Amino acid sequence: MKRAVFFAPLIGFVALVAILYAGFHLNDPSRLPSALVGQRFPGFQLPELTSGKVLGHQTLLGEIRLVNVWATWCPTCLHEHTTLMDIRKETGLSIVGINYRDDGEKARRWLSLYGDPYDFTIVDANGDLGVDLGVYGAPETFIVDADGIIRFRHVGDVNDRNWNREFLPILDSLTDG
Amino acid sequence: MTTSTSDILTVTYESFDATLGTLWGAGPEIGHLAAIIGLVAAIVLSVLGHVGAATRRRSWVENSGSFAVLQLVTLVVAFAMLVHAFLKDDYSVVYVATNSNALLPWYYKVSAVWGAHEGSFLLWTLIMAVWTFAVAMIGRRLPYQIYGRVLGTLGLLNTGFLLFLLQTSNPFLRLVPNVPTVGADLNPLLQDFGLIVHPPLLYTGYVGFSVAFAFGVAGLISGRLDATWARWTRPWTNVAWAFLTVGITLGSWWAYYELGWGGWWFWDPVENASFMPWLAGTALIHSLAVTEKRSAFRGWTVLLTILTFSLCLLGAFIVRSGVLTSVHAFAVDPERGLFLLVLLGVTVGGSLALYAIRVPAIRSRIAYRGLSRELFLLINNVLFVVAVAVVLVGTLYPLAYEAVTGGDKISVGPPYFNRLFVPLMGLLAVFLALVPVARWKRTPIRLFRQVGVLLLASTLVGALFFVIAITSDRVLNTGSIVGVVIAVTLALWLLLSHGVDFIQRKGARPLGYLGMLLAHVGFAVGAVGVAITSVFSHETEVRLSPGDTVELNARQYHFVSVTTVNGPNYIAQRAKFDVGGISLYPEKRNYLARNSVMTEAGIEAGFFQDLYVALGEPLPDGSWGVRIQEKVLVRWVWCGGLLVCFGGLLAVMDSRYRRLALRRDGLATAGKVA
Lengths: 177, 674
What we know:
The complex is a heterodimer. By secondary structure, chain A is of the alpha/beta class. Chain A contains 5 helices and 7 strands; from the N terminus they run αβββαβαβαββα. Chain A has a single domain (33-176), classed as Glutaredoxin (3-Layer(aba) Sandwich), CATH 3.40.30. In chain A, the strands form 2 sheets. Chain A has a 5-stranded mixed beta sheet. A two-stranded antiparallel ribbon of chain A has the order 1-2. The model of chain A is unreliable at 27-31 (pLDDT under 50). Chain B is flat. In chain B, strand 9 and strand 10 (624-632) form a beta hairpin. Chain B is built from 22 helices and 10 strands. The interface between A and B is large, with 42 and 41 residues.
């Protein structure tokens, strides 16, 4: 019957509440699986933030790197920034930035103000590389191995908790093997 | 009354204080008791209203009004007791101790009452009681079954709110015997004029939509959602909407001068929480117009009353109470979170169930043809509801993500909102410009001809603007200039079409019509402000020492000095900047009690542009990080908001609502109250 249509708002609302309720009761949530893990890092031809030199994806080859998607409009990125600085200082790991849909001038100012943990920063002003990476917010961080294969994807900020629990085991296994 | 209101208040307060000296000691207990009596009044009100209407006991309904009065009186007493505890620095009350400090100026002690969760919730219930009282008085001419159900529904809502207050968020709790000697102070961000008035205005708007909601529920139960119903509901909805508009505008202005970034809108969850009900409310006031004039859109209108108030609840509770700004609050105080979720679930779920059951029998089937005013208002509604969905997804997604992952944060950010929201508003502007020509049922094509000419004229001006902008030596990307040109062209078109209609209109120009014009003009003014200030503003962030000069857009900013200034409860570093004969004084304030640092921007405000200087961090060598901005037409954003608000209020004063009052009201009680 057509009457059923009028229950749609109610059903929608109940579904929303159920999702919220379930969300708050998941203590060990499953990670969003990424189809990119095990794949080659997508190709790109994009300028570097400070030098303006156009870089391709072969610049990522040769060592294990963290690739971090960030922007100045993203308060979470500022929150994450100190963690990245610490990681850089303590582990010496190579970190590459992708400045995602941002203003280049602001981005350079941000790095001079808060410090620059990145080996270099790729400017993705239109978000094209972001689309290839399936980015839907910022920050996101990828582990890319020496052959340019994506080994891990993390959506959201890197913090002490997920660094120790998720990033370190993968990085360890990559360096051992 | 105008000569010495504050004197009279002071004297009255002091004499009360002296005579009731001993009683005041028990102020928090009196307040607590008053809130409990208020709860009882709310329960009685809901029973008398709903049961009286359902069982056709006219006397029950007629007497329910006195409980609306009782509810108001008790909650005023409760609120006054909390204010008193703040003014007296009664740190035995936990809420006072955690949110006040003896060094606070008295006006911040008063505003500290709603500076945190418990007190702001008490304010919420008080405003709820004020609205209920207003409906009880002004609405006496309504058919008693509608009157009873509206009041009954308002009573039910405040029953829920007061239960929540008393059960989980009691601001009157004492901390004895270990009474702290100093208060922890009010959050310095909130020590500002904007934050004195912002929450009460916003709450008045939020809570005001509960009246529209109550009319919706009453209409559903009574099976009456006709034009008369819409005419009863419309003024209440407009007033609530106007308050919400001015509340949001003030919030934006506050963020601009207090946060030190020079931004006026950040798409953060707290802002979005107030913006979503506003968008839904805007759809509602337009849909109500169709229901009143054409008796159409009934089911849709009543669904919007539910949606708007639900978004108010979602916004005010979930964000303001700190449940979702930090998801961890749920874990810290699961009782509070669960209570809110249940309250929200019962209110929204209950009303949606009622809607599903009742609306098939009540809704309208009224025909209209293409290019009618109905169609335009339908498009308006679709655009606004899509806008709500865009903001809702963008707001809840990061919050849900944090909840699901157990603490990982993510930002969706302005790129998402701007990319989806701005085109929606552009589309809206197109239809807004056509509003004056659109007629009910069907619009003759010839009427579109004139408005087409106006579009041509605006496009020419826009093109000229484009040429000037592109040939000026500014480095701007063409994309943003095109965006501005489109915005300016549409705004101009809208202004012209409304202006021409105003001049050509035959016969009377009722206040409802003028209000509509004013609100639409406000939209145009705001849109121009938003577009121009986003693209044509200048900004730089530099490191400066006193004595240095920096140039921005051909203006010299001379950093003269930094001096230390003592405020009542803070120590400030105050800088002096000279800009072309004007001095700006940005400050960095250290609030002592919480040891937190706040920025006060130095602003030279102007109709065409603001000069804005904010201090960043002091550096070891005595220099400062300084943010200097020239914000072009930024005031227009808020001017637009205020015009929209005035438009809404003007429409409420339309004589047709008063005529209705006189026709129905033999006893003229409404006149006495007003």
